[in-house]
């Protein structure tokens, strides 16, 4: 056996040293009372001496080994910082100030280390603490770092001008300014973050509070976040990113959901309030409630998250956090939100305000679509709320919110509506209708009833409609007094219900209602002032009811025409200024939880739109001529020229007005040119849920003698059929309208759709049907470019050029352009007149790469054109000096275009040669290509362009 001799390790040496020290400790002389001093250096106060004596006596009675063991046990159980603190108390040379128990005076607090100027300045700032120090127990040391929070904040950056800074919010959830002038720390929120001179809390700081174990901090954070969510949309214009989007992307819902799992009722209540505010869409609710019943329409939106509708299998694989960021409703349901809400309601003592918040959360979930609405209505939680509201007759606020939730659910589909009818929901709401206590609740009940009528359900209640409506209308007419807002709202809702009954059932005796409606109209139309929103809504509903059946009301139609001739001009001025279609529409909602967006309208001010819709519906059934003021055409021209985004909820009302006025003018055989102008204005506005109305517009458009006046042999029947193929011919039976159905049926460039379809479809591209359709389409484009340039200009000139240029690559063997050369030439002249607006550098919608498109066009020219001058004129336009040099390099290096392309004097007069030669070319690579010019035929245009540049070098 061998031994391995190694040097002791550093760790072993240290351990041996510690053992030696402990051994030496055990060999100390015997301890006496003087070993511990006469007084304690830790304790102070009247009992300190007695306690010290007892401790010393106990220590003397212990052996050395017991003392050592006790010391080691004590040291191992104490925090290192505390040990250092006790040692500093023992040290007479400590660097902290101390005091004795002499009578108070101003000099008793002092610094031992006067050389440290920084510490002295800190203590001076704490001078107001001297009295507290002199009176306090165990305060013989001033620890300036711990007492620093009681002093003034550092204001060295307070007056610094800052353009971009972190947003801070007050306890009321409102955005605070960068600084608050002339305020002290006690006048606002005081914190110890990086910006101590600024008031309020950042989002991150609130999240930090929310993660604390200290309940008051969590409650504070939840309360502020709840209020902040309510105010979120108010600050979008001053923040670099919409606040609600930032909150959702930062994972706020996860923190709120965790708070909901707490056992503290206050934390749960505040978490419910925050989540309720997030799900409730209060701004949407206000607008939808006001617009319900307008034009006898009670449609509600379904909020779709487009990205979350793509691939459900992929969504199932995502993490909880990613799913919440993508789709809040699906993500929330994955966290068992409804089960937790159900547990809270059944097992915890929460108040009615929390029940309201829970109802708002369920409303947000149900608004997501049919699947989610059906999920809500089948839960025990919904059934429990139903029992509370209708059986125990809970508060009116909760009842109103719950009935709105029920209306949202019933609006999603017939299946949901039938499920509610199985629960005998109508029997329950009749309790409120027959014994009304609050108008908003009564209105929601009437709109819920109408929702079932829209599905042609609840027909057994039709006999109760007339008497009920008569009761409300008769009670509210108040011909001897001014009608209140409540009266107007009740009458509008009642007439909306009766209109629905007439449209969907038809068999109902309501002659008294007609009589009352005529009386109401006579009174309201006699006013010299334009109506406010509620009055406009009621007038529109009165006219809608009178037009529900094929009855003639000559006396009413006379008054309607008289009113229009007197006020229509002024009403159109209001439409011009406050157009819903041309409004400053903004939608900064988070993608995972969309809202209807913001539109600058006031439902309390003058809003004649709904009165106009009802008037046009009535005059369509009771045709009478009326004057169209010049203000209407001014308004229409503005519509034609505006770049309008119509994919929002509120645009639909103005579109409905334009559709109805178009029908009315057609019925009274108004001049064709004017009706045609309205029709083509509507072509790119009509949303998908109004698809059937587009058929009417197309019929008007293509059958118009004005269109047929084009000097080209065509009856447009093929083109009309093509557009009808593109439009879905199915009328929705839903009371709700999907937000995706608000997108226009036809795009802005609807004129060019047939050309693009032929170009992209091999069958059409080489068929006689495709060639016929192409001829029709080009004639249509020429007509619109000539007579309605405002509509065409909605599509950029470069995009229109590309779409028309596709013609040269269509037809059998790509030679169809020879048959339509005349039309193509006229269209080219239109585009050449706008040459200054031609821009191929910016992205072109529908063209992934203009370079590749142009290369294909040039190759096609070389193959089939036979140096056609019209084709050449189109190909030459992108070679102007103002366009990309890469296009010029392309035709000189890769394609034999210079040897074949040619145009005539007619085209050079429109786009002169100097557009191709000035300024002088500076690209050396291209100039080198120009040196090959002598190989070209001198009569071709490219020869003259190249020579001009080379001669000017």
Automatic annotation (TrEMBL):
<dbReference type="Pfam" id="PF08621">
    <property type="entry name" value="RPAP1_N"/>
</dbReference>
<feature type="domain" description="RPAP1/MINIYO-like TPR repeats">
    <location>
        <begin position="772"/>
        <end position="952"/>
    </location>
</feature>
<keyword id="KW-0539">Nucleus</keyword>
<dbReference type="InterPro" id="IPR013929">
    <property type="entry name" value="RPAP1_C"/>
</dbReference>
<dbReference type="Pfam" id="PF25766">
    <property type="entry name" value="TPR_RPAP1"/>
</dbReference>
<feature type="domain" description="RPAP1 C-terminal">
    <location>
        <begin position="167"/>
        <end position="231"/>
    </location>
</feature>
<dbReference type="InterPro" id="IPR016024">
    <property type="entry name" value="ARM-type_fold"/>
</dbReference>
<keyword id="KW-0804">Transcription</keyword>
<protein>
    <recommendedName>
        <fullName>RNA polymerase II-associated protein 1</fullName>
    </recommendedName>
</protein>
<dbReference type="InterPro" id="IPR013930">
    <property type="entry name" value="RPAP1_N"/>
</dbReference>
<feature type="domain" description="RPAP1 N-terminal">
    <location>
        <begin position="50"/>
        <end position="93"/>
    </location>
</feature>
<dbReference type="Pfam" id="PF08620">
    <property type="entry name" value="RPAP1_C"/>
</dbReference>
<comment type="similarity">
    <text>Belongs to the RPAP1 family.</text>
</comment>
<dbReference type="InterPro" id="IPR039913">
    <property type="entry name" value="RPAP1/Rba50"/>
</dbReference>
<dbReference type="GO" id="GO:0006366">
    <property type="term" value="P:transcription by RNA polymerase II"/>
</dbReference>
<dbReference type="InterPro" id="IPR057989">
    <property type="entry name" value="TPR_RPAP1/MINIYO-like"/>
</dbReference>
